[in-house]
Specification:
The structure holds 2 protein chains of 2 kinds. Chain A is mainly β. Chain A has strands at about 10, 20-25, 35, 45, 60-65, 70-75, 85-90, 95-100, 105. Chain B has no helices and 11 strands. In chain B, strands 2, 4, 5, 6, 9, 10 and 11 form a 7-stranded mixed β-sheet that branches. The chains are: A mainly beta, B mainly beta.
Chain lengths: ~110, ~120
């Protein structure tokens, strides 16, 4: 299956570490990408190619990959990190893009 | 800076058509391909396909064939999405997004165009 599975929600207190996982068979062969979407805004990339962070993205955002899972880690979570996070990867053929269902990060 | 600016929100009757524009600035338009993404209310993004900005050749994902048309006007660095025979289930926010990097991920995205189909 080329589906990507994410937990619907993750909650953390400010200053703690949030980990959001994304699982899918295609991830064993393809890179994972992470997008942040705040209410009323378009998604924006925060991690590309599993672990790379675009310029302008805070260092507290990091990514990792193992087998069929990629993980977005936000260290020292801040209130402004509250958002929906979507993983994305090519399907197993590499010809189509698939998004995960999204994870709502709540900062308590 | 690199920017994609989309046209404004649309309210349409079932059966009508709509054309959404996406104007690029801050980079050479034909150097990067353009994607279209749908986000239904309360749902995650769904990739609709992409258009080759060099050749104008579109590629549509299954489920977005027939009523959906991607086009370009390279003279004004603008991509278009046209949807015909609108249905209530087409109600969504439609985004354009530039393909970047060796793996063609999406950056940046336009601000989105809400399309509401209602009688």
């Amino acid at each position: 299956s080329d589906e990507l599975t994410q937990p619907p929600s993750v909650s953390v207190s400010p200053g703690q570490t949030a980990r959001i996982t994304c699982s899918g068979d295609a991830l064993s062969k393809q890179y994972g990408f992470w997008y942040q979407q705040k209410p009323g805004q378009a998604p924006a990339v925060v991690i590309y190619k599993d672990t790379e962070r675009p310029s302008g993205i805070p260092e507290r955002f990091s990514g990792s990959s193992s087998g069929t899972r990629v993980t977005l880690t936000i260290s020292g979570v801040q209130a402004e990190d509250e958002a929906d996070y979507y993983c994305q990867s090519p399907d197993s053929s590499g010809k189509s893009w698939v998004f995960g269902g999204g994870t709502k990060l709540t900062v308590l | 800076q690199v920017q994609l600016v989309q046209s404004g929100s649309e309210l349409k009757r079932p059966g009508a058509s709509v054309k959404v524009s996406c104007k690029a600035s801050g980079y050479s338009f034909t150097n990067y391909h353009m994607n279209w993404i749908r986000q239904a209310p309360g749902q995650g993004p769904e990739w609709m396909g992409w258009i080759n900005t060099n050749t104008g050749n579109p590629t549509y994902v299954q489920g977005f064939t027939g009523r959906f048309v991607f086009s370009l006007d390279t003279s004004v660095s603008t991509a278009y999405l046209q949807i015909s025979s609108l249905k209530a289930e087409d109600t969504a926010i439609y985004y354009c997004a530039r393909s970047v990097g060796s793996e063609n991920w999406f950056d940046p995205w336009g601000q989105g165009t809400p399309v509401t189909v209602s009688s």
